[in-house]
Amino acid sequence: MVKILLCGCTGKMGTAVQHFVEERGDCEIVAGVDLAGGEHGFPVYQDIAQVQEAVDVVVDFSHPSALSPILAYCESHPGTAAVLCTTGYSQEQVEEVRTASQELPIFYSRNMSLGINLLMELAKTAENVLGPGFDVEIVEAHHNQKIDAPSGTALMLADAVNEVRENSMKYTYDRHSQRKKRERSELGIHSIRGGTIVGEHQVIFAGQHEVITLSHSAQSKELFAAGAVNAAVFMANRESGLYDMSHLIQNGKED
């Protein structure tokens, strides 16, 4: 039984994680951390350093400011893994995660959806097969309350395709101010904001007389909670290193 410490347990995503854990028989939440406190079926602390229970994995859906305390907790509790689901890390914090993964087992992905990460793998395969003869455009759509554009997921997809091209592509976010033909090295990224769209992403490969479109549509934010629980079970007893959804997908293939 994998013992989980849930940071951000009273938020929407924390509540969704609790729901998915309740439906499984291979893990349990033994403690939570949240400044808001609240009544749960497990003890809730305001500071992760106060946690008394033995845990296998820390799952974080809180705030970027909690990163350093979480890593410090894992360092002081050998064998404890971290599943980092919080978005909005600065580049310095991403480097902090990479450095910590040399000593700790850490799972970090900018999107916890298994489907999105499968889309990323499919996009890489498509780019390998189709090559530079196909133009690549990424379109993402989200609700009207989302602040950042493009989405982190769109950039993750772009980076995956660009990696296949040996990072030779130039990201283009806005063409209305330009009056010129599209360059072969461009990778267009476009954002749509409206209504209550949870998240939609398309990777378009446009060639001569044919277009191939790979897409993913998120129907509920709860799918990210499901991905986090899968990651938590996967990370139990792992060796030090930086893991992401590609490792979880590969593990599923091996099973």
Describe it.
With 255 residues, the chain is of the alpha/beta class. Helices cover 33% and strands 25% of the residues. Strands 3-2-1-4-5-6-12 form a seven-stranded parallel β-sheet, sandwiched between helices. Helix 3 links the parallel strand 5 and strand 6 (105-108). The relative contact order is 0.17.
Question: How are the secondary structure elements laid out?
Answer:
Blueprint: E1 2-7, H1 12-22, E2 27-33, E3 44-45, E4 57-60, H2 67-76, E5 81-84, H3 91-100, E6 105-108, H4 114-130, E7 135-142, H5 152-164, E8 170-172, E9 186-193, E10 199-206, E11 211-218, H6 222-235, E12 241-243, H7 245-254
Parallel strand pairs: 1-2, 1-4, 2-3, 4-5, 5-6, 6-12, 7-9, 8-9
Antiparallel strand pairs: 7-10, 10-11
Helix pairs in contact: 1-6, 4-5, 4-7
